[in-house]
Specification:
Length: 461
């Protein structure tokens, strides 16, 4: 499946961007290519999720029996059984027909609708405890964190980063140890329940079968159970309605924030959206949306897998549709939006990206990375000047000479000097070297300009 997709993307790129592909090269997406791709990507197993048409109904039926037997044999109650799942969130995306989205499409290089992060959500079957979400973004320290002086340890989510914005095995284990296990342990103790729990999840690459082997001994009360391949749409409670509801609540919070800003400030919606809505606001909205997911939304999707854990009186329960509130707020802001637009927006988060969207996403991520690096260097230069670093380096050289010549224990003096050089002074030397390289690079580019393009001065004339 991956090889076929790779060949299709290559064909699209060859047709639309021929300059990107070398002449005479033939891309076959062979088995060897796939193995190398798999190693680079860290993919342990390739399973297709989220498509009911390709789901394995027989395997799902068999798993229900296995799950029921395990629950009965181990004596689990709904409070002890948890489900977790990850989802992509295009956190700065509006419905397609709103003028903001249409304006973004018309603005080259400005595509915030493609900004994506991954959210991992987890709760128990009784719906009375939610675990702190794991949020994975492309950048560890976005500029907005510096602007808002964010302390990552006090965020309402567990914040982690990698270049792809994906949940990896390492990040999942970290969330398991630092967020899931301690919370569940405290919850079980507070509710006088036996210290044991079952965690249900799909067999995504971040959830390999031997996951329990990597867990610390302190948390051996956790039992992990993986859903069979291609049964996620049929059995995974998070996938069935929880994630969809969470995204609708996130969109509701997003519209409410836009409405309040335009009502209470002099900012227009366009100005707020372009210049004042950032990842810090997104994190707060993720937290609020997760808080607003009701126990009924968390409990009712277990009916197919574990009917006994869903109270009979809740089966006919009705909750006011969130979508109607979103549409009402949208219209009050003058946005062209209806129920179908919101449903489409939620589904868009799960859709496979086209070749063009993949290329745009890659370009945007590269642009954001460059901006983050440039921003970091600008702040660095603003904090400390090169002349100041050079002056300190000269003094440090004098100190080294003095210590080496006059300290009675030469071995101790050399050891301390080496530690200082390796762990402290080297940082500032790297700053000077990087700036020197940048100046050299700039001069090199200036010299390489064609003579015809250089502006003639009186001296060259």
């Amino acid at each position: 499946m991956l090889c076929e997709k790779a060949r299709k993307i290559h064909g699209d790129l060859l047709q639309n961007c021929p300059s990107m592909c070398g002449e005479g090269e033939e891309f076959k997406a062979s088995r060897g290519w796939f193995e190398n791709f798999r190693k680079r990507s860290g993919i342990h197993s390739v399973v297709r999720h989220g498509e009911a048409a390709s789901s394995n109904a027989e395997a799902a039926k068999e798993f229900v029996k296995i799950f029921t037997k395990l629950v009965e044999d181990e004596g689990y109650v709904p409070q002890q059984v948890f489900s977790c799942d990850e989802t992509g969130l295009f956190w700065k995306r509006m419905p397609k027909r709103t003028y903001i989205t249409q304006e973004e499409k018309a603005m080259p290089g400005h595509k915030p609708m493609k900004e994506r992060l991954t959210v991992l959500l987890c709760a128990n079957a009784s719906g009375d405890v939610k675990i702190k979400p794991l949020v994975v973004y492309q950048f560890e320290n976005p500029r907005a964190f510096k602007q808002h002086k964010v302390n990552k340890d006090t965020l309402p989510v567990m914040w982690r980063a990698n270049t792809r914005g994906w949940v990896t095995r390492t990040l999942f284990l970290e969330w398991l140890h630092k967020a899931f296990a301690p919370t569940v342990k405290r919850y079980l103790k507070a509710n006088n329940l036996p210290e044991k729990c079952l965690l249900l999840m799909d067999n995504a690459p971040a959830h390999p079968p031997n996951l329990v082997d990597d867990m610390v001994e302190e948390y051996n009360f956790i039992k992990v159970m993986l859903l069979p391949p291609n049964t996620t749409p049929l059995l995974q409670p998070m996938d069935k309605q929880v994630i969809s509801n969470f995204k609708k609540l996130y969109t509701k919070g997003l519209f409410a924030k836009c409405f309040n800003v335009t009502k209470e400030t002099s900012l227009t919606l366009k100005e707020f959206w372009k210049n004042h809505f950032n990842i810090v606001h997104c994190i707060n909205l993720v937290n609020e949306a997760w808080d607003d997911v009701t126990y009924w939304t968390l409990n009712s999707p277990w009916k197919k897998l574990w009917p006994d854990c869903v109270p009979e009186q809740d089966l006919e329960r009705y909750e006011p549709p969130v979508v109607d509130e979103i549409v009402s707020m949208g219209k009050s802001m003058g946005l062209e939006v209806d129920i179908e637009d919101i449903e489409e927006l939620v589904l868009d988060h799960k859709k496979e990206l086209t070749t063009e969207e993949l290329a745009e996403l890659q370009q945007q991520q590269q642009q954001l990375l460059t901006e983050e690096q440039s921003s970091g260097e600008e702040e660095e230069r603003a904090v400390i000047k090169s002349d100041a670093i050079k002056a300190v380096m000269e003094k440090w050289n004098e100190c080294q000479d003095f210590f080496e010549k006059n300290h009675p224990d030469k071995a101790v003096a050399n050891r301390v000097i080496n530690m200082m050089n390796d762990h402290v002074v080297s940082h500032f030397r790297k700053i000077l070297m990087r700036r020197k390289r940048q100046v050299t690079l700039d001069c090199s580019f200036a010299k390489s300009d064609p003579p015809a393009k250089r502006r003639k001065t009186p001296e060259t004339q």
